Every structure is written in C-alpha cells, then in structure tokens.
Amino acid sequence: MLERPPNGERALLVSLTIGPNDGEAAAEELRQLAGAAGALCVGTLGGTRVAPDARLFIGSGKAEELKGLVAAAGADLVIFNHILSPAQQRNLERELGCRVVDRTGLILDIFAQRARSFEGKLQVELAQLQHLATRLVRGWTHLERQKGGIGLRGPGETQLETDRRLLDKRIAVLKRRLERIGAQRDQGRRARRKAELPAVALVGYTNAGKSTLFNRLTGAGVYQADQLFATLDPTLRRLPLPSGQVVTVADTVGFVSDLPHELVAAFRATLEETRSADLLLHVIDASAPGRDRQIEDVTAVLAAIGADAVPQLEVMNKIDLLPDSAPRVEHDAEGRPVRVWVSAGDGGGLDLLIAAIAERCRGADTRRRLCLGPQDGRVRAWLFSHAEVLVDAERPDGGWEMEVRIPALALHRLRGRDPVAAAALEAAPDGAAGDRSAQWIG
Description:
This protein is an alpha/beta fold. It has helices at residues 23-37, 60-73, 86-96, 103-114, 118-132, 159-194, 210-218, 261-266, 268-275, 291-304, 350-362, 377-386, 408-415, 419-425; strands spanning 10-14, 17-18, 40-45, 48-49, 77-80, 99-101, 199-204, 235-240, 246-251, 279-285, 312-317, 328-331, 337-341, 365-372, 388-394, 400-407, 439-440. It has a seven-stranded mixed sheet with strand order 8-9-7-10-11-13-12, sandwiched between helices. The protein has a four-stranded parallel sheet with strand order 3-1-5-6, with helices on both faces. The longest helix is centred in the middle third of the chain and has 36 residues, at 159-194.
C-alpha cells in the first residue's frame, strides 16, 4: 500500500523569490494553477532566497515556519511553485507530515484532469510515469522489502526492481502507441500539404485567450474558460480568407513557465502542428502584468521543440481590459504586419487580424522566368493555379518559357513539390542540367 501522506484539497502554497523572478506574479500564477487543479488555498508562504537549500529547498528555518502554518490552517497538502528533487520532496514530507507536490506534479495533475482525447490521455500518462520513475526510491516503504516467505522465494528481485521494470514496460507501450498516432498525424499533415493549404498555428501562454480567438476566427466551438490549461487537445479548422485563399488553423496547448520537460517530450507529436506550421499566431495577454516574461517563456518552449524559426505574427489580445486601447496593426520596416491588437472577447480588431494573416501567408511576391520541358505540364498547370502568369510562350521543343509573379509561400511549396522539380530549381541558369527539365532562368 502507498505509505506516503494521503492527498487532499486543503492546500498551503509556497512561492519563494529566487533570483530576478517577479515574486508577486509567480505567486498569483501558483494560486491560479492550484485552483485549476481543484485545490482550496488555505494559506501562503513567501520569502526570498539566494539559492535553494540542498536538503529542504526552503531551509530549516522556513521549514519550521511552514510546519506551523500547516498545523494552524489544517492543510493536508503543500504545493511548491518550484521544481523539487526527489530527495527534497521526501525530506519535506517527513518534516511536515503531509503530502508535498512541486510545480511539475501540479501541472501534470491538471493535464491529467483536462485530457479528453485518447491521444491526450496517453501523453499525460507517459509524462506522469516518466516523472514517477525518478521518485520510486523510498517513495513507498514497501518497495524496500525483499520478496520472501513460502511461495515467494526467488531470484532475489526486490519490489522496487519489479515496479521499475513494470514501469519501463508501460512507458515503452505508451511510446509505441503514440508513435502510431504520430504517424497518423503525419499522414493528415501530408494530405493538407498536398491540398496546398497554408497552416497557421495558435501558440501562447496559457489563458492568453487562444481558444476564444480560435472560436472567433473559425466558429469551432471548442471549450473556453478563464482558467489555466482549459484545453489540451489540438483542434484544426479551415479559415477562408477575403482573397479566396483557405488556410488551416490549429489551436494548440498553452505554454507556461518551467513547463515540465516530461510534458514537452510526451506532447512532441501534438506540438508538431506548431513546428510544421507556415505561420504562428503568438497570442499574448496584453493586460497581463508579466507579459514580457510570458513572451520569453513561450519563445523558450518554441526553441525547445524546434519551432523558433517559423514566422510569427504577434496577437496582442484582451485590449478591452486596457484603458484607451483600440484595434490596430503594427508593421516592420519592410511593411509586413508583425503585431495586431485585438479583443477576442468582443471581436474587436478581428478583421485586421484576418487581413494580416492573409498578407503574411501570401508573403512577398517574387517575379521569376523559367523554362519548362514538354513533360512539365503538371508544373505549368500548378503555376496557373497558384501564381500570376505574365508570359507563357511556347518553345520549339514543345516546352514553354514562362514569366510568373508568385507568392513566397507558393514558391516554397513548389520547390518541395517533387524531387525532379526541386533538383531543376537548383540547376545552373544556363539550362545545361541534363535530364532535369524544369529550369529557373531568372
């Protein structure tokens, strides 16, 4: 049986300021996370430290103070806004006589409650087991006992070793299942690529308003609430643009500071929607006091999953909570929209956002001359569908010499359309490229 202190809902929250962190904003976020997990906050403990204590994280003096607060408030759970080592967690539970949960365990618990799809549940279970694997030693006293007695004598495998082996087997099973689901997702992405639909993904800090904005843009009706991690499972919808172009929009899981690396690894297949997108809508809560820190945290997670090179359009959301703020678009030195101020709650500025999405997906037009061989009819037809054809002259060999004005995104897709065309695009401009028939000549 589990011999650690039992779980409970009456929680005492611990948030220390270590280094340059904003202690007040961090403490408020911890209260929101605890509330999202269903805990009842009965007290808080703050303070500052230069560095964490190796044994108790908060030091022996703070531990005594915390023990008194736990007894006075009748708390049966202590939640730390920090990542604790397994040893620190065990030492604190021994000192306090109640269950201790660190930031990683709290976020994993929220994800476990919110996962709805089969894939989401598998991802959360994998993350939880990977986190648990580091906390087996002395987490349960029965794990230290050797199997013995009549009918139980054997090769001497301890219960700890048995549980670790079973844990590893379950982790392997979950990874195989998620790999199969990931392959299905890849197939769906390839189908969308074949249909030449630009992909737009919403990313941002949790509770920045991504799902509300997603519903406003697409009418999807996904669950939205003013709470952290309201939605976990990604949803894709088509969005028609005023130009007639259609893009796919994906609503993804929200990010948070100190996002557990187990979650990043487990949700890698889901986050692939972000990495494979043509444009990221970075949704930012413009009214949040610590929005600059939130932007840095999202940027760090995007870098961790390899999506930092994807073009971004910042969406400053919730301007209805700011005084004297109106919808507007900001452009860079080249005239491209880089930031749009909107309110997903009342719909203010959404027309500006849709126009900015259309412009960023179209990209800068590129004017090119090329010659095509007689067997390149598919490429020629594709250009008529996706580019503005300025010149289309027949050649004596049955091919065509064309001049087109093509959007940057369409040019990128044409380069990756098939190996022969891709090789031809990189050939020398004099046309001496052997059997590679499609030649860029300007």
